[in-house]
């Protein structure tokens, strides 16, 4: 990956943190922009074709959650949330409103650079257009990628963040067979600390939620000896 073409916006009201993160990212070859308030962040977002945003949640004017929601109405640029909030509920909230990853303070700058690289690798070849709503089999299964909402028939399906990530990875590449390791790398990231067979559990749970007959799935198909692929006529 040629990092010099990648523009990263770092948003935090603590200037020392911005300086450290900027230094590490620039050392890795990224072009880095700074913002210390929500308004500054949105200004840079409108003016610069960003590749990724590192976004602190606690800002003096707008919250990181508000900024994330505003950006998600216009763009799918990857967002890594940076915050002192470490509760699972806060992390899930951040992921549900559109964050691609979540790092808690205090953090290692090297770890942050690694997460930036991992997120960019997962999203660099993303073929899904903005504002895309996927509808399969005459509305039997509908995925709204902006709202992060999945519906089966007339009912909203409650997916965990990992289930949603795996489903979207499969949907983005219909007909492509993924190995378990590929799904871990593309959907769950390098920091995933489970086993490859954990993917099977996620797939089983997904089928229970989106398939009419989980024992005879028509969306997420098993390719024996290899992995899984997504089928379904839009």
UniProtKB/TrEMBL annotation:
Domain OmpR/PhoB-type: 131-232
Annotated ranges, domain Response regulatory: 7-120
Highest taxon, organism lineage: Bacteria
PROSITE patterns registered for this protein in UniProt: OMPR_PHOB, RESPONSE_REGULATORY
Record's keyword terms, sorted: DNA-binding, Phosphoprotein, Transcription, Transcription regulation, Two-component regulatory system
SUPFAM superfamilies, sorted: C-terminal effector domain of the bipartite response regulators, CheY-like
SMART domains: REC (SM00448), Trans_reg_C (SM00862)
Annotated signal sequence range: none
One record GO biological process: regulation of DNA-templated transcription
Residues the record lists as 4-aspartylphosphate modifications: 56
GO molecular function: phosphorelay response regulator activity; transcription cis-regulatory region binding
Pfam families named among the record's database cross-references: Response_reg (PF00072), Trans_reg_C (PF00486)
GO CC, any one term: protein-DNA complex
Residue ranges: DNA binding: 131-232
Role this protein plays: May play the central regulatory role in sporulation. It may be an element of the effector pathway responsible for the activation of sporulation genes in response to nutritional stress. Spo0A may act in concert with spo0H (a sigma factor) to control the expression of some genes that are critical to the sporulation process.
InterPro entries attached to this UniProt entry: CheY-like_superfamily, OmpR/PhoB-type_DNA-bd, Sig_transdc_resp-reg_C-effctor, Sig_transdc_resp-reg_receiver, WalR-like, WH-like_DNA-bd_sf
Annotated protein name in UniProt: Stage 0 sporulation protein A homolog
């Amino acid at each position: 990956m040629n990092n010099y073409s990648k523009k990263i916006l770092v948003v935090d009201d603590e200037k020392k943190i911005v300086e450290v993160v900027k230094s590490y990212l620039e050392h890795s070859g990224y072009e880095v922009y700074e913002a210390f308030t929500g308004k500054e962040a949105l200004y840079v977002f409108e003016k610069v074709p960003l590749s990724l945003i590192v976004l602190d949640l606690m800002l003096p004017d707008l919250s990181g959650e508000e900024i994330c929601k505003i950006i998600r109405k216009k763009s799918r640029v990857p967002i890594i949330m940076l915050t002192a909030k470490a509760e699972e509920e806060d992390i899930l909230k951040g992921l549900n409103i559109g964050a691609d990853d979540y790092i808690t303070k205090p953090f290692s700058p090297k770890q942050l650079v690694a997460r930036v690289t991992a997120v960019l690798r997962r999203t660099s070849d993303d073929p899904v257009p903005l504002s895309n709503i996927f509808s399969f089999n005459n509305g039997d299964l509908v995925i709204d990628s902006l709202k992060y909402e999945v519906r089966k028939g007339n009912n909203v399906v409650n997916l965990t963040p990992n289930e949603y990530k795996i489903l979207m990875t499969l949907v983005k590449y219909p007909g492509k067979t993924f190995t378990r390791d590929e799904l871990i790398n593309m959907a769950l990231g390098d920091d995933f600390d489970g086993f490859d067979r954990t993917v099977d559990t996620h797939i089983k749970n997904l089928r229970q939620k989106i398939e009419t007959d989980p024992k005879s799935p028509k969306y997420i198909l098993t390719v024996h000896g290899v992995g899984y692929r997504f089928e379904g006529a839009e």
